Every structure is written in C-alpha cells, then in structure tokens.
Recover the amino acids of this structure.
C-alpha cells in the first residue's frame, strides 16, 4: 500500500488532522513543538460516491472502498538539514513515503504557539522547501562522488548517473525542487535511485480556522498558498479545517452532515483531501459489483486491463480473455448491467486496454 506523509512546521495542525483523517487518537496533538516524535501510521478509506449507487444497482449487501496509508511525521524547524530539532529523523521518515502532504497554518490563534512567533504561510513553506533542498544537495553530492569512482572503471550506468546527478544538482542549486526538473523517461528511472526528498509529489493542505472555512477561498493567505503551489511546485492546494474535521470525526454521519450544513459547507474537507492524496500517489479506481459486494479496486494510472484483473486474482490475469467494461456514469444512466448490454453500451476490452478511473468491469478468463 502506498504511503503519504503529513509534514509541516510544529503546531500547524498535523496531528489533529491525522487523527481526524484516520478516526484515531494515535497522534498526540499538543501545543508545543515535537509532540510527535516517532511517526504515526494509519489507514484511511478513500471516499467514493459511486459505490453506494453501484451497490444499489446490483443489490450488493456489502461495500468495500479502497484505502491508502497516511504517516504523521514530526514537525520540521529551520536547520533540520543539519540536524536541528528532529531534523535527521524527520528527513529519514520523509524518504520512506511516496508523496507529501504539507500542512500550512492559515489561521491566527494566540493560544497556539508558532515557532517563528508570527503567522506567515509562505515563509513557513519556504522554510521546509529550503531544508529539503539542502538535504537533497548534500545527499546527491555524496552519491555523485561515489558514482564518479565507479564510472572511472568504465561502468556505463554509473556514467549516466553522474551526468544526471550533475544536472539535478544544478537544478537544486537554483532553488528548484527535483520534481520540477525536466527529465526523459530514462532519466526518471535513474533519478528514482537517488531517493530525493524534493522529487516526491506534494500537495498543500491549507489549515484554516473553523469560522473561515465557508469563505476560505476568499482569504488572502489561502490564495497566496494556492498561487505558490501552482507556480513554484506545479502542485494543488486543498483547504481544510483540522479542528472541524476532528469534531466531525466524533459525530454520527447524519449529525456530521447537519454540522457542515450549518457552517455553510457542502462536503467534508477530509474527503476532498483524501481523494486528492489518492490521485497524487498516481492511483486510480476501477469498480466491480455482484450479489456479494460492490468494491473499489486500486490501480496505478495507466495500468492495463490484464494488470487490473491480476489485482483481483492472479488467475484472472493469467487466463485473461476480455473485460466487459462501462464507465460508471453510463451504467448509472442505463440503470442496470442488462439494460446497458441490451443498449450495446458495454465495451469488450482486451488485455492491453488502459483502465480509466471509474470503469465498472466484469472479467472473463479461462485457466
């Protein structure tokens, strides 16, 4: 299962958000730096509004959503790249995740200490960006030195890695994350072996005050984070109130909906954030349904029908014949699988078909 790490400066709401998203109290949430030391890990289900109507169409008594893993990582401070605070441990924990959710404090609260004693969301982002860049420069410089010794012996792969490391170091030295460096597919494959922190896909979670959530998009601080994310990182920014999500996590579903409605909000920010993280990880969903269950299955973007079938059972991939396929929206419009078949809406896809998010599939196989 792929992992996303929740990172940020101390006291920005990481642990509160983690607890709300995972519906646990694993992470200590306190008003002092480094209340999280060892990373907390939790599994979250991915909200999918297609599952309930799909189950209704097939009379499925059970719904099984897909899931991802979240990791709550200790707060970072200036100087982390040289070991300040919990810097070394923080950075090692980031290396172990597949994507990064950076929580940015976008609320004022005198009762919750800020490490720099004033609220400046962009300065907070730059602090983390600088520390990750410095750590990558140090790591990549040492890796290049080692590779240069190997390359002198005539190793072609090592020579290619040295050239790539030099290219990436120039990019990092210019203050730009590795993720924004233009690389060929071959270079991308080599770059993964460097395990660079700034190469990890990232999204920003703008943590706003409870009273600001309904009009958060009008806040200057949120607009500034969204602009930075898009222009400097090619990334998405999602608005969320960790405090509200913590309160919603304690309520039954109907009361939670009423609470959101009273705030003037139509959807939980947690749902939107989890879906954004799921896509950030490069994951997509196909659906199956029958008399026992309606289920969401996880695949990587671009995977084939045969690979998707193998995710259910290896026999499905080994003996793959074809996949009857229809987009969920089309199936819902026809009202049943039989009606869709009668209308000629079901597609017969071969093993090389690239599965699309929301495809409802029935695999035919023979072993």
């Amino acid at each position: 299962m792929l992992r996303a790490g929740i990172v940020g400066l101390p006291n920005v709401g990481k642990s509160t958000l983690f607890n709300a998203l995972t519906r646990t109290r694993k992470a200590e949430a306190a008003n002092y730096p480094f209340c999280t030391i060892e990373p907390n890990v939790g599994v979250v289900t991915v909200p999918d509004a297609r599952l309930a109507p799909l189950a209704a169409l097939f009379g499925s008594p059970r719904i099984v959503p897909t899931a991802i893993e979240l990791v709550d990582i200790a707060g970072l401070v200036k100087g982390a790249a040289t070991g300040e605070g919990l810097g070394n441990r923080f950075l090692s924990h980031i290396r172990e995740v597949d994507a990064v959710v950076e929580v940015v404090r976008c609320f004022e609260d005198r009762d919750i200490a800020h490490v720099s004693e004033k609220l400046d969301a962009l300065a907070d982002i730059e602090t983390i960006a600088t520390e990750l860049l410095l750590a990558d420069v140090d790591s990549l410089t040492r890796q290049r030195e080692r590779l240069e010794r190997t390359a002198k012996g005539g190793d072609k792969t090592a020579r290619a890695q040295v050239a790539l490391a030099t290219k990436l170091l120039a990019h990092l030295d210019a203050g730009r994350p590795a993720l924004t460096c233009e690389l060929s597919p071959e270079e991308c494959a080599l770059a993964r072996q460097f395990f660079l922190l700034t190469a990890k896909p990232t999204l920003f979670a703008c943590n706003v005050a409870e009273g600001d959530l309904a009009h958060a998009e009008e806040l200057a601080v949120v607009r500034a984070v969204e602009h930075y994310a898009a222009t400097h990182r090619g990334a998405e920014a999602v608005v969320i109130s960790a405090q509200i999500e913590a309160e919603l996590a304690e309520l039954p579903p109907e009361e939670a909906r009423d609470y959101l409605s009273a705030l003037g909000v139509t959807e939980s920010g947690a749902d939107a954030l989890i879906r954004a993280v799921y896509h950030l990880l490069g994951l997509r969903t196909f659906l199956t349904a029958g008399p026992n269950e309606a289920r969401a299955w996880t695949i990587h973007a671009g995977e084939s029908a045969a690979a998707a079938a193998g995710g259910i059972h290896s026999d499905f991939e080994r003996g793959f014949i074809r996949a009857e396929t229809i987009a969920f929206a089309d199936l819902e419009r026809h009202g049943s699988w039989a009606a869709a078949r009668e209308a000629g809406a079901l597609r017969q896809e071969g093993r090389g078909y690239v599965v699309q998010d929301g495809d409802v599939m029935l695999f035919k196989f023979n072993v």
In short: The CA atoms of residues 238 and 276 lie 8 Å apart. The first helix runs from residue 14 to 22. Residues 27-37 have pLDDT under 50 and may be disordered. The chain is about 40% helix and 20% strand.
